[in-house]
Fold:
Amino acid sequence: MITNLREQVLLLSQIPLYAIVIGAELILSNVRKQKFYTVKETIQSAYLSFLCFLIDAAFRLVALWAYNWCFQHAFFGFEHKGWMYWVSLILLQDFMFYWLHRNDHFIRFFWATHVTHHSAEHYNISVGFRSSVFEPLYRFVYFLPIAFLGYEPLDILFIFSATQIWGTLVHTKAIGKLGPLEYIFVTPSHHRVHHASNAKYLDRNMGMFLIIWDRMFGTFQKELTKEEYEPIRYGLTENLVKPNAVTIVFHEFIQMYKDVTQPGLSWKERWGYLFDKPGYSHDGSRMNSDKYRIYEEEQLKLKAMQEQEIVSEAHINEEVAVS
Structure:
């Protein structure tokens, strides 16, 4: 009951918090004369958040039943909820979220759900509400092992809600790099990389609260300066043209269905269109994030070679002119 009340207070406190920070971001964007927000995308984000809220609310009892069953069959138990209990719960929850988020990017079936979160071409705090609509239907599965370890179900839900506040607030261009915090926590800089569609930045920085998992498992990429790399482009590698209330949610599912039902495919190829990395194609004709990176590196090498040839030719011409 206390945890229930704590979660309700946490959820209620988010409303004025988000109102304040979004207002501050809007003011700052006007002062800097930068276009952080568009009315269309903000409405889209609110719409997707509302759909996710409905599914989450409807499915909450199922998730709680699963958590409770695991908790009743837990391998361990805690006599006291001291600071070690809460710190370890944060670490475990964030670790499991990393794998949830990573699979959302690396398995097409789950990317079809998560793609809605990445479909905004402008980046601001409202994008944090641009939910993966169907994620509540399977998200809880990743946290079941935590209940098996003896952590109470309502505590699991509470910590997820608490870390989700941080995960929402890092959706901003208004804050630069945060010094030593960049080594431990997910920062706005890290998450800007995550939402970028530039080849070097694709499928990077999956953590919600801690960046240490990305550093450990090879998905970390720092935000580069304009001198080091091109400016960030937000959105998808191929953005939606005139999305509506249906296509913004289901466009990847629709395309996935068309791919799977192509005639003449083997079962392995059909499976690939469902569960391989986004960008899979049975004939290798499509681009995935790895191919985008390879192609970009090849183009950069080619450009460097061409520039070197121009410089060499200029030196030769100078020597001829002198002689």
Notes: The chain is about 60% helix and 0% strand.
